Automatic annotation (TrEMBL):
Signal peptide: none annotated. GO terms for molecular function: glutathione transferase activity. The gene is LOC110415567. It comes from Herrania umbratica. The keyword Secreted does not apply. This is glutathione transferase. InterPro entries: Glutathione-S-Trfase_C-like, Glutathione-S-Trfase_C_sf, Glutathione_S-Trfase, Glutathione_S-Trfase_N, GST_C, GST_C_Tau, Omega/Tau-like, Thioredoxin-like_sf.
Length: 227
């Protein structure tokens, strides 16, 4: 059944949850560009009819709705935002710079994030192997950050927004699951984490640490039930 979309809906709406790292990157991009939007926080255990209508393929958040038209998948949304609102660009002008930012965004979503998530959800050897793979991946990140404040250079760009979840969640994963990224082996990553999380726009939207710990503790217990 098609849900009627009221005319009074604001021009830009963002379906997300309070904790989703994929949603946070979109919020940060909108804020960096000064775009007013209405946030709709979904309950993923009881998804709204609108969310299912807007993202019937994946049924996931985030979904950006611009003038009633939905756009899904956070990396696609970031590109849409960049092309629609040109101010404060999050991608450089040159094709190589653009390609690099997209490469790192893809690397994060397809390689780094799945390894860390796997380490969080698995046990024993599988956990060790996944964390080993994550730490290997982070060596490439460390290398990429050489001589730079942000992935994008002097200012926050698309790749920084995509890696932003690291700044948000590494301490949570350490606290909940004992997954430690050894600071001494990744000094540039550590400096980036601090620089990124202290940026006023980023600080302005930052899921509370204590609330994240409670959420991920519950998830951890679900993946690792007491035997
Ligand atoms: N590739 C997607 C991932 C989005 C995603 O995994 N969202 C999660 C919340 S963090 C979700 O909506 N999960 C609901 C579900 O899987 O049913 C993106 O980049 O937007």
């Amino acid at each position: 059944m098609k849900v009627e979309i009221p005319n009074s809906m604001a021009e830009v709406k963002l379906f997300k949850t309070w904790s989703t790292p994929f949603g946070a990157r979109v919020v940060w991009a909108l804020k960096l560009k000064g775009i007013q939007y209405e946030a709709i926080d979904e309950d993923l255990s009881n998804k709204s009819a609108l969310l299912l209508q807007y993202n019937p393929v994946y049924k996931k958040v985030p979904v950006l709705v611009h003038d009633g038209k939905p756009i899904s998948e956070s990396l696609v949304i970031l590109e849409y935002i960049e092309e629609t609102w040109k101010q404060n660009p999050i991608l450089p002008e040159d094709p190589l710079g653009k390609a690099k930012a997209r490469f790192w965004a893809k690397f994060n979503d397809e390689k780094l994030l799945p390894s860390i998530w796997s380490a969080f959800t698995k046990e024993g050897t599988e956990r060790e192997e996944a964390m080993g793979a994550a730490l290997e991946s982070l060596k490439f990140v460390e290398e990429e950050l050489k001589g730079k404040k942000f992935f994008g250079g002097e200012k926050i760009g698309l790749a920084d927004l995509v890696f932003g979840w690291l700044a948000n969640l590494t301490r949570v994963f350490e606290e909940v699951a004992g997954l430690k990224i050894p600071d001494e082996r990744y000094p540039l990553l550590l400096a980036w984490l601090q620089e990124f999380s202290e940026h006023p726009i980023i600080k302005d939207y930052w899921p509370p640490h204590d609330k994240l710990v409670i959420k991920y503790q519950a998830l951890y217990e679900k993946f690792h039930p007491a035997k």
